[in-house]
Amino acid sequence: MSDISISVEGLGKMYHIGGELRRSTTLRDAIAGAVQRPLERIRHPGAVSRHSDELWALRDLSLEVHEGEVLGVIGSNGAGKSTLLKVLSRITEPTEGQISLAGRVGSLLEVGTGFHLELTGRENIYLNGAILGMTRVEINRQFDNIVEFSEISRFLDTPVKRYSSGMYVRLAFAVAAHLEPEILLIDEVLAVGDAAFQRKCLGRMEDVADSGRTVLFVSHNMQTIRSLCTRVIELRGGTIINSGEPSAVVDSYLKLLGGSDGEACWSGDDRPGDADVRLAALRIVDMNGHAAPVVVSSQPLLVQMDVDIEHLVPDLTIGFDLALADGTLVFRSYQTDANPDLWPELHLGRNRLECEIGSHLLNDGRYTVFPRISIDRSRWIVDEGAVSFDCQRDPGKSPHALAQKPGALAPLLAWRRGDDAP
Between the CA atoms of 283, 284, 285 and 286, what dihedral angle is there, to the nearest 10 degrees? Predict the structure, then answer.
C-alpha cells in the first residue's frame, strides 16, 4: 500500500479579474451582446478583452506528501499558499490538474471558515464532525477533549457569532485537531491566539504528526516552520520554486526577503496591501533620519514606515516583527501598544510612523524587520516585505564589550546589592 497521503499533479487555479459584469436584462440585450462580441474581435483582433482577464493563483503545481509528514508552506502574499489549502480542502474547485487525498481532511484556514455563526459552539462541534464524516459516537468520544483544549466551556452554548476572534480560533483549532482527520490543513490563523495557546496548538500538531497523520502548515513564522516541519516548500507565482529540508529552504527565503540594505520602497500597485491601506516604504534610520544599514548597539535606532491610507479602517493596527537571521522572532511591536495620549491619529494619505528601539538592547548580528499591518490583529493586510540591518556592539563602552554575549539581545541592565534595596 502506498504511503502517499496527498498527491497533486499539474494543479492550476484561475480567477477572472478586472472585468465588468455584463447583465442582459432583456432577450434583446442578450442577442445584441452575442452579435456584438464576435464583431469586436474581428475589428480589433489584437486587443485583449478586459472581460476575460485571467489570474492564475496556482499553475502547473505538482506535489506528493507522505503520511506522517509535516509540510511547511511559505511564500509572500499572492504566492498561492492559501489558495492551495482551499483547493485541497475542497472549498474551491481547481481549474485544472488532479488531486488525490488518502483520508478525511480537517482544515483551519481562516477565521470564519467552517462554522455556522447562528449555531452555538456545541452545535458547531457536531456540525464540523459530520462534515468530516465522523459519527456521533466518534464526536462524543472527543467532545470533552475539544472543550477542555479550547478553554471556552463557559461559552459553549453561546452562538459563535458572539465570540471574539480569539475564542473563535480556539474552538476552531480544537475541533480541527481533535476530530482525528487523516490530513490536517492549517493556515496562519494561530497568530490571533495568545502565546500560551499557540504553544498548545503547536504541541497538538506535533501529536497529530507523531500519530502518523499528515499536516500542511502555512505560516510566516519561520522559527515555527523550522521547529515543527519535516519538509518545506516555497511558493512563488502559484508554483513551487524550492523544496527540501526546512532550514535550507527558510534560509534561502529569508535571504531573498532581507537582502535590502536597511530600506525598501514600493510604488503604485506594487505597494503591499489592499485598496484601503498600502505600505510605501520600510526603513532603518538613525535618530537624525539617515539610513542606517549598520547600527551601533550603544545608539538608538528608528524603524520607519510610510503607510498610504485610502480609507480609514476601524481597528487598524500597524507594526513590525524583529527577527534574527535564522527567522527566530525577537519581538513584535504595534503602534497601538504606545500610550494613546501620545499617539497622533492616522489620516488619509501618507502617514510616516516611527518606532524607537532603545540603545544597549540588541546584540551583535544581523536582524530582519518584517512589516505587519492588520485589522484588530486578526486579518492581515500587509505581512510581506522586509529590510535587514547589522548591529555592532560599541567596544569603547566597556572593557568586556568585545566578548560576544549569547542570546538575541544584549541589554545593559542595572544591578545592585540586595541589602541596598529600599
Answer: 170
Of residues 124 and 113, more confidence is placed in: 124
**For the chain, how many structural domains are there in total?**
2
- Angle among Cα 385, 386, 389 to the nearest 5 degrees reads 165
Residue 395 is predicted with a pLDDT of 56
Which residue in 251, 282, 299, 268 sits closest to 396, CA to CA? Answer: 299
Query: 159 in helix, strand or coil?
Result: strand
Spatial separation of the C-alpha atoms in residues 106 and 234, rounded to whole Å: 22
Same domain, 246 and 299: no
pTM value > 0.85: no
Phi, psi of 136 (to 5 degrees): -65, -35
Task: Report the side by side order of strands in the sheet with 105-108.
Answer: 105-108, 183-186, 214-218, 70-74, 231-236, 239-244
- Tens digit of pLDDT for each residue in 221-274? 777 788 789 999 999 989 999 999 998 898 788 766 655 668 889 988 889 888
- 278 and 392 share a domain? yes
Produce one character per residue of 13-25: b if its CB has 16 or more CB atoms within 10 Å, e if not: beeeeeeeeeeee
Contact 372, 319 (CB under 8 A): yes
CA-to-CA distance for 121 and 177, rounded, in angstroms? 16
pLDDT digits (tens, 9 = 90+) for 149-195: 988 999 999 999 999 877 888 888 888 778 788 898 888 766 555 66
- pLDDT value, residue 120: 95
Phi (first) and psi of residue 95, to 5 degrees: -80, -35
Together in a domain, 159 and 219: yes
Do residues 279 and 213 both lie within one domain?
Answer: no
User: Structural domain of residue 384, as residue ranges?
Assistant: 263-397
The pairing of strands 70-74 and 231-236 is parallel
